[in-house]
Amino acid sequence: MVKVKVAHFRLCHSRMPFCIAYLRESLEMVLDAHVRAFEFFSGSPRRGIYDNLKTVVSKILIGHDRIFNSRFTQLASHYLFEPVACTPASGWEKGQVENQVRYIRRRLFTPRVRCKDLCELNRYLADGCLMLAAGQLHPEMRDKTVAEVFRKEKPRLVLVGSSFDGFRETPVRVSTTSLVSYDSNRYSVDASVAGRTVMLRVYADRIVAVEGGVVVADHPRLFGRGGTSYDPWHY
Hints:
By secondary structure, this protein is α+β, with helices and mostly antiparallel strands. The protein contains 5 helices and 13 strands. It has helices at residues 27-41, 70-79, 95-108, 118-135, 146-153, and strands spanning 5-10, 17-22, 47-50, 57-60, 66-68, 82-85, 168-173, 179-182, 185-188, 197-202, 206-211, 214-220, 228-229. The strands form 5 sheets. It has a 4-stranded antiparallel β-sheet with strand order 7-10-11-12, with no helix packed on it. Strands 8-9-13 form a 3-stranded mixed β-sheet, with no helix packed on it. Strands 1-2 form a two-stranded antiparallel sheet. The longest helix has 18 residues, at 118-135. It is globular.
């Protein structure tokens, strides 16, 4: 049994849902989830409402004012939407979000889901969201399903031609054996940068090392502890 974190999205007008699962709840997962959601919707909304999740809200100020994570702000600028945070302890501002969590848990995770890997689980979730939208009546337009309302809403979404490159970047020191460490795992890099500092681009599913604008390593991301990913060509 594997415990996963599920990102939930819901368009306010049509109530069209989208869910995607990850093994972590970190910034790069949140960035990737937005990219996948906007691909699923074929566009982005003009405003996003958030429940002060720590991965994107760096500091809570007075009222609705927030200091958002700089990388998340870049994502919002790329997709041309305005992020708005809910007021703490104000449940009436986020009813759609909390109701969706209960609804998705009941409809898509009961009984417990069995999948061979995360890719299969996310295909199941995407197909499940489409199925739910096709069979659920819109709460306000009772003569239409969520899917029917979404088809009319879809042309009003903001269409951005290129996807955001959703990585988190951090400097790391390369060991004398051409290895870098991240999240309790190690990855080989090209031997030419041994003993130097490289920029590690952490994606939801990849680890990429860059030095002087040149990629010196690209590995599938490891999620256990104490693992090492080697590329023999690095040596």
